[in-house]
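Action item from last week, closing it out:
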Amino acid sequence: MLDIKLIRENPEIVKQGLLNKNSANVVDDILKLDEERRALILKSDELKAKRNQVSSQIPQLKKAGQDTTEIFAEMKRVGDEIALLDGGLRKIEDELEEILRNTPNLAHSSVPIGKSAEDNVEVRQWLPEGFSFKNDFKVLDHTELGKKLHILDFERGTKISGSGFPLYTGKGATLERALINFMLDFHLHNHGYSEIFPPILVNRESMKGTGQIPKMEEDMYFIEKDGLYPIPTAEVPITNIHRDEVLAEKDLPIKYVGYSPCFRREAGSYGKDSKGFLRVHQFNKVEMVKFSNPKGSYEELESMVVDAEDILKALRIPYRIILLCTGDLSFSAAKCYDIETWSPAENKWLEASSCSNFENFQSRRANIRYRREEDKKLDFVHTLNGSGLATSRLMVSLLENYQTPEGKVIVPKVLHKYTGFEIID
């Protein structure tokens, strides 16, 4: 959530920032409500001060034998007016909060200005030694490979749950589990994260804290009877671990990594790259989350991207890093890198990870603060997260890049100790 003080003191900067994010200009509405709010607070405080002053004089007046009937009547009128003012204040504050909760974060100054994904900027590529974008044999896509090798069964997954709910079988299930365990171990032993195994159902406050609600509520599954949401990403429960807490500056950055299944309705997305793993409603993901001192949060973002890259280098999967422009940034992000892996069958790059810095946008919503050592004052931490990585599109690239002309799949060497086999045939 944006700081109302920032909007009040820099309205034109905020207006331009919202424009850069393809968002509606709500600055004037916010400032109008804020002015009304402060005027009501001032008037209410003046009446409360008057009531307190008169109330403190009543005992002396009674003691002196004076009639206080009129004074009591006047104080009742003052009390009624205060109640009306406070009621109006609550209404304005609710309206103001609703607008602020639906207002996106502003992009960092280093983010390129653009309207859509076409304006994103490629930062770098990494290709394994000997890699070629051209194959000398007919490449099967991941759905064909999955069916041929009896490791993926999208048809039965649809029968069980509906489209977008994959079924892994045999060595496919083992390979999926191996990927998850490998990525968790790699982040723990090489990158210094602490492991979290979070709940996969969260309450509404948790969804609000990370910015999924109210803006993206239609894309969420919801269990109405219990008021709980299946998580769209482990970012939600892991970030909310420290909701309404004060952290010590010496403990920052705090680095968590956790696995979870993820659930997304993705309303309105049907027909967009919907084959196999390209568009799913349930998928697995290893998530990195950081709580950072604001002074070093952008260095933490760069290191988080490298942490995700290290996984792909170990798996020897070709990838590229994309810096998102302002118009393609998510609602909550101030800066974001996408990591895309190569799909030979689709002949294009597929997003397999996003690493974002939210600055204090989420921590304001979730009230996550730290105490500064220099002056002992409280300030909001910066929160960051990144996929490290999502397995669905990673599996696409793994199967397709490691297939042989015979239609077998070679298992990456780093996964052998997790799978117990070196080839899928």
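Closing note: The mean pLDDT is 93.
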